[in-house]
Amino acid sequence: MLCAYDQPMRIRSLLAAAAILIVLGPLPPRALRFPVADHTLVATATAIPNHAAQRRIGRLEVLEAWRLTSPHSGFGGWSALALTAPRRFLLVSDSGWTARFALGATGTVEALRIEPLPRTRGITKSRRDVESVAIAPNGDVVAGFENTNKLRRYDAALTRVLGAAKPTAMADWPGNAGPEAMTRLADGRWLVIAEGPRSGKGRSHAVVFDRVPSDPAAHETRFDYDSEGKGAVTDVATLRDGRVVIVHRRFRLPFGFTSTIAIADPRRISTQHDWSSETIGVIDRAPLSDNFEGIAIDPDPACGCVWVISDDNQSSWQSTILLKLRLPPLKPAGESQAQKRRR
After folding, report:
1. Domain tally for the chain?
2. Element at 216 (helix H, strand E)
3. In a domain, 117, yes or no
4. Which structural domain, as residue segments, surrounds residue 236?
5. Is residue 147 over pLDDT 60?
6. Long-range contacts for 264-270 (Cβ within 8 Å, ≥24 apart)?
7. In angstroms, what CA-CA distances link 27 with 97, 191, 234?
């Protein structure tokens, strides 16, 4: 979700914020895709032409690119993404809606379900603003709520709330800046990162939990992540080698987005210095660029791929774009330039 942050901003950031307010809200009815409630249960995936210039994004290879559309009023604004099986997706929006479907190789959308999360109807949008999800080993879904800084655990069918917590380590996070990104690490711990400053030139608060973070008894270790100018953190996912892949987003004038994908090593997390990452790709050109806010690992170990989803903010000038990206062969983790400078 696009948001401000409680730090001084430069003139460019102020202009960007003003542009966002002008374009995204309050919006005139003609700018909204869903001015009237519609519960038609259908969705379409349209392939985005894969031009030669778009086949590689830095060290990433674009394997698939889809534009998702639906007349359903709850479809859109996707701020979190998970895969529950090969090509079976779970999307969660900043309005508390979910979409579950299977995507065929030719773009067929099957087994579509669009439903609100339990206990999210009849409350204000700020209290049902989900920005992150992660899947527990038994299939339970953990969701991070912005503004309230609450974490909830749901059963795999998304029918019941199994637990909830408001971690102490997240109590002072700005209401509109986290928990934006969440993943279960390879060693069983859980990582949650706040969105941080929109410019990406400052630090994001982050915390590691020793167990599922919706457990009020979970032990918390707080630290800071420095995006080193990549943009605000929007999501994170754990790779099979134990590292994590992080998505960052910057708004650029007049109305566009730059999304930076980077790799970081959780073994380097420390309370003594900032954690950092290495850029592997930047999405900044049409027709693929948009407000990417969700990332998930493809279950096929032979692929070495991730999927990313964009948040269209329910606006007419943005799209829901789903990309399948092949990661580069990763070299052994080493110090970032920022870490070397601190030595």
Report:
1. 1
2. none
3. yes
4. 11-329+336-342
5. yes
6. 264/225, 265/333, 266/185, 266/186, 266/187, 266/189, 266/191, 266/208, 266/242, 267/242, 267/333, 268/333, 268/339, 269/206, 269/208, 269/221, 269/223, 270/223
7. 20, 35, 23
Question: Max CA-CA distance within the chain?
Answer: 58
Query: What's the helix, strand, coil split of the chain in %, to 5?
Result: 10, 40, 50
String of b and e for 281-313 (b: at least 16 CB within 10 Å)?
Answer: bbbeeeebbbbbbbbbbbeeeeebbbbbbbbbb
Residue 6 lies in a domain: no
Element (H, E) at 254: none
Mean pLDDT across the chain, nearest whole number?
85
38 found inside a domain: yes
Judged against a pLDDT cut of 50, whether residue 4 lies above it is answered with no
241 touches 330 (CB < 8 A): yes
Q: Percent of the chain beyond pLDDT 70? A: 83
Question: Token pair for residue 192?
Answer: 């949650």
**What CATH number did the domain enclosing 195 receive?**
2.110.10.10
| Two structure tokens written together for 72 | 């359903």
CA distance 323 to 301: 18
Q: What percent of the chain has pLDDT over 90?
A: 66
Residue 40 lies inside a defined structural domain of this protein: yes
Whole-angstrom distance, CA of residue 91 vs CA of residue 158: 12
Q: What angle do CA 142, 209, 176 make, to 5 degrees?
A: 60
Residue closest to 141 by CA, chosen among 164, 123, 112? 164
pLDDT digits (tens, 9 = 90+) for 51-102: 665 789 999 999 999 999 999 999 999 999 999 999 999 999 999 999 999 9
pTM comes to 0.86
Say whether pLDDT at 16 is over 50. Answer: no
* Confidence band, pLDDT 50/70/90 cuts, at residue 202: confident
Using the predicted structure, report yes or no on whether residue 315 has a pLDDT greater than 50.
yes
Q: Starting at the edge strand that comes first in sequence, how are the strands of the sheet with 150-154 ordered?
A: 130-135, 141-145, 150-154, 161-165
CA angle centred on 212, ends 94 and 116, rounded to 5°: 30
